[in-house]
Amino acid sequence: xxxxxxxxxxxxxxxxxxxxxxxxxxxxxxxxxxxxxxxxxxxxxxxxxxxxxxxxxxxxxxxxxxxxxxxxxxxxxxxxxxxxxxxxxxxxxxxxxxxxxxxxxxxxxxxxxxxxxxxxxxxxxxxxxxxxxxxxxxxxxxxxxxxxxxxxxxxxxxxxxxxxxxxxxxxxxxxxxxxxxxxxxxxxxxxxxxxxxxxxxxxxxxxxxxxxxxxxxxxxxxxxxxxxxxxxxxxxxxxxxxxxxxxxxxxxxxxxxxxxxxxxxxxxxxxxxxxxxxxxxxxxxxxxxxxxxxxxxxxxxxxxxxx
Amino acid sequence: xxxxxxxxxxxxxxxxxxxxxxxxxxxxxxxxxxxxxxxxxxxxxxxxxxxxxxxxxxxxxxxxxxxxxxxxxxxxxxxxxxxxxxxxxxxxxxxxxxxxxxxxxxxxxxxxxxxxxxxxxxxxxxxxxxxxxxxxxxxxxxxxxxxxxxxxxxxxxxxxxxxxxxxxxxxxxxxxxxxxxxxxxxxxxxxxxxxxxxxxxxxxxxxxxxxxxxxxxxxxxxxxxxxxxxxxxxxxxxxxxxxxxxxxxxxxx
Amino acid sequence: xxxxxxxxxxxxxxxxxxxxxxxxxxxxxxxxxxxxxxxxxxxxxxxxxxxxxxxxxxxxxxxxxxxxxxxxxxxxxxxxxxxxxxxxxxxxxxxxxxxxxxxxxxxxxxxxxxxxxxxxxxxxxxxxxxxxxxxxxxxxxxxxxxxxxxxxxxxxxxxxxxxxxxxxxxxxxxxxxxxxxxxxxxxxxxxxxxxxxxxxxxxxxxxxxxxxxxxxxxxxxxxxxxxxxxxxxxxxxxxxxxxxxxxxxxxxxxxxxxxxxxxxxxxxxxxxxxxxxxxxxxxxxxxxxxxxxxxxxxxxxxxxxxxxxxxxxxxxxxxxxxxxxxxxxxxxxxxxxxxxxxxxxxxxxxxx
Lengths: 307, 253, 352
Fold this sequence. Notes:
A: 307 residues; mainly alpha; two-stranded antiparallel ribbon; disordered C terminus; B: 253 residues; alpha/beta; 40% helix
């Protein structure tokens, strides 16, 4: 019981990050029915851009706060441009193609981005500049840091902001309409191209934010970090019900907690046979179980198949 | 005394709040052509889909040839001897007409991967028989000259015939046709009528869903009318045509 | 079979046969490394043809195919190396590997049967990763796979005293290890191609195609789609398993690194870029995607040195970058693949 609360906290933090990334997947899938494989790479680029911008500024002697903001802004802008570019150049021409074609394209773009990152930033692990104060707190026997607290707070605020956008603005309504029925939405005057672009851009912005958080939390980054993160975030989106925003958020947090608890207790559960380095498996197992038994996820709608 | 082939008992199905079928009971006798008509949305195709295992009924069930029909197992319906065509034509578009019919033989043949890999005697004999039967069926429905064309390139009328040929390939006891005359002109409809008559003559029981009331009344031994998911009447055409409820259902009360 | 015997086909086949027999000697002129590259290309042809059954024939998007390769390879490694002290002959191990891979195929395929395209892809991807993670970590408490270090000193293929490693003199020709493996691989591939062709034109092949075209209609005509799909997984997996076994024997060691996701993607790309479901296209795709990167690797480095005087771009990352771009470009401009079957081309491009 002693590590339970600790793992919950860890899971909550990691889960908040998953949630932010999952939103990117779920928005795109909800509107286009496409799994944007390259999204994980966008997050990774967000992290690496921050390292370059903030790192350079800090070395030049500028205050950490300024460097941090500059790094974050640069990331968000770069990722938004990247997301926009992906949609415009790679996916838009394929809107009417059978499903396999955009999927392969997405995989291809993911590989391209990963290798571009490798060419720009090199193969080595990089240290993320420390942007947040190091403070420790303790609650009921479990420790948490300022970084963790800030991650959870910022994520929650951002997600709240997104919900406001989607449910209270015209753009949000346009997005919801498009994800229900693109043809009719466009007949009603919705500019589908702009809505889809918006989904990509907003998702990428959130991804950039998540990237900065990952960097801040783990303090290192690597050109290959996007892959696993992306996969797990996608699992979270599916868990919550793909296409459903609240589902993605909840799915992310839930997955984070499942992973943390699993990693914490797997040794005990399997009598030492499986250790915590099997941690990555939990996401996959969750994915498989959800897709087998409740493919619409926790909040998704069941889409029937009329013959 | 007519022998019952298919018995529907109190079949019910709803989608959310919509009651698509309300306790529908009817029976189809061996050797007859049985028509199922009703206005759009009456539940005809839903009934079909429940019978052939594509939907699971929420209440009631079917008995076929004396034994209950298992729900949710479309391939078992075909094994038992129920074949169907689809309202929107579901052919294997990128396979040739001949291949489409050959696939229809799948359920009555048995060569597996080992047979395919080793091409032993029994497999080759079976394969030749499949091919021959498919060619014969294409002749039967009069599209033999389109055998090597891709199914998706056939004319609409030929596609409907092909679908029937494929269904016949499964050697059904009950052939279910879902609006086969849709989109056909008078000549094509007459040809279809002849084809269906021929199939009945050759011993297959037929369930026909149709909108073309003239075709149904002229062809069917008995007719059932559905309206809003409920059975209105089940009788010979002469009586059904004159039934007040039927007239109201079609013309609107 | 009769159509193979007419004079034109016989001539064509003889030419191909001569080319195949001579190829390793030609390749060896560039160095033994090239014979090895050719061998790997053939292994990929193997794998691509196996995956073609799942993706091309049955239309099931498998992104975790490499798992079966891994099972076959590790089975061979465990049964023919000092690791457990077992040294079974290859003709015993290969069938065992194939069967084990087959079982895995059924296991991994079963949960996916009701899933739609993208979800199927993700789940199979997950399975592939799970297998790799297990391979990487099953070294404690009992050491089964020896973890990240893998298993080494695997016995080469051998017919009695005739070992496939080392050089042998036959009829005045000097056959090196890779040479000998080349002929073994070619023989096996020809077998695989024949099996694939036979499967394609069989009752089961048609059933796979029917499922790919319209699963609901397939069920309506009596195809037990569950079993037939599992059959596709099982068959595809067994090919992967056999390829894995030969790989283990040829390379002499196996480690989890060889079985990562990118390999699954690579093989899928070979099938899709080559021409999904079309056997000649798939072979072309496999050869292109395995040889071209090597050409890039050997060419780009010196080229950069010659033109720029230094290495601007690491050939390895350039190779992967080009691969990714190739995927995107082919999907954009030739979605049916480079050499599709005539029907499929029409389906995807609307032209004859």
